[in-house]
Write a structure and sequence with these properties.
Layout: E1 2-5, H1 15-27, E2 31-34, E3 42-46, H2 57-66, E4 71-76, E5 84-89, E6 124-128, H3 143-154, E7 162-165, E8 182-184, H4 199-203, E9 206-211, H5 215-222, E10 227-228, H6 255-261, E11 265-267, H7 268-273, H8 275-288
Parallel strand pairs: 1-2, 1-3, 3-4, 6-7, 6-9, 7-8, 9-10
Antiparallel strand pairs: 4-5, 5-11
Length: about 290
């Protein structure tokens, strides 16, 4: 298999992850090209956020998609942030194929994550924004407009206070005075880490989380807080899809969801050992590479 990888277009924290995958591919005798496209069967890029160091990935993505060739996308994980990493085909979150059609209950315990019982801990509805420069946002309006739409829809069914929480690296202007009992608060960054925030603290006073498709919904579900998400969210199967249910959100069983989710993220060592690539490669041959 001819594989083109583009570590030069990755974020700072992507370097050891790319190195681990490249080491594995070379150990298996794959035909590997680094930062160059030689009409390969598959490309490997970091994220679908076309910004900064990763802006060059858009050209690669567009080219391979136009040729109906697969693109494997790696990015930071949401279960053990900056410890585990996602690897999926042709997208991120639920839009990606993680080659996890088969899964069991053996991997989830390795993450050592406590799944808290469903329990709304407060009275605040939290709307979490995300990076609107990302390809995952391509079919949505500007973030401010999306936020306002969520507020207007929530207000048809609930008068609970609303907290708007922007993505830590994608802020926007919003007039808090336009809507009563609505306020905006930027995440507090944990500067001892790459991009962790104070979201766990926020969840302690939360009734429900509204989010399109990013990692805060996952953190909320694991923390026992109901979520309202789109079909592109990895939490879709355990979330709510219509805000008319905001006062009485569904809180379904989550263990099967967690078991499957655990096969979307891998440690750097597991990537070096080839655990995710064995699944990805098989799936590529089954469905994407003719």
């Amino acid at each position: 298999m001819r594989i083109a990888l583009f570590p030069d277009n990755g974020s700072i924290n992507s370097k050891p992850v790319f190195a681990a995958l490249i080491d594995h591919l070379r150990s298996k005798g794959e035909e590997v090209y680094i930062n160059e496209d030689r009409d390969c069967d598959v490309a490997v890029i970091w994220s679908v956020l076309w910004l900064g160091r990763m802006a060059g990935n858009k050209k690669i993505w567009d080219s391979y998609q136009a040729q109906k060739k697969p693109v494997v996308v790696m990015e930071v994980g949401g279960l053990k942030r900056n410890v585990t990493w996602k690897m999926g085909i042709n997208g991120i979150n639920r839009d990606a194929d993680f080659a996890n059609q088969t899964f069991d209950n053996k991997r989830w315990p390795l993450f050592n994550i406590e799944m808290k019982p469903w329990k709304q801990t407060g009275n605040v509805i939290v709307i979490c924004g995300q990076h609107d420069t990302s390809n995952q946002w391509k079919k949505n309006p500007r973030m401010t407009n999306w936020i306002e739409k969520q507020i207007q829809e929530i207000r048809k069914y609930s008068q609970k206070p609303i907290l708007i929480r922007p993505h830590p690296r994608n802020t926007f202007d919003f007039d808090e005075k336009k809507y009563p009992h609505v306020r905006i608060k930027k995440p507090q960054r944990d500067w001892n880490t790459y991009d962790d925030t104070d979201f766990k603290k926020v969840l302690k006073s939360t009734w429900a989380v509204v989010n399109h498709s990013s990692n805060p919904a996952m953190e909320a579900v694991i923390g026992g807080i109901p979520v309202f998400v789109s079909e592109s969210s990895l939490c879709h199967d355990v979330g709510n899809v219509t805000l008319s249910d905001i006062e009485h959100p569904a809180m379904p069983a989550r263990q099967n969801w967690a078991n499957k989710l655990s096969y979307t993220e891998w440690t750097t060592q597991e990537i070096r050992d080839g655990l995710p690539w064995a699944r990805i490669r098989k799936r590529l041959e089954e469905k994407y590479i003719k």
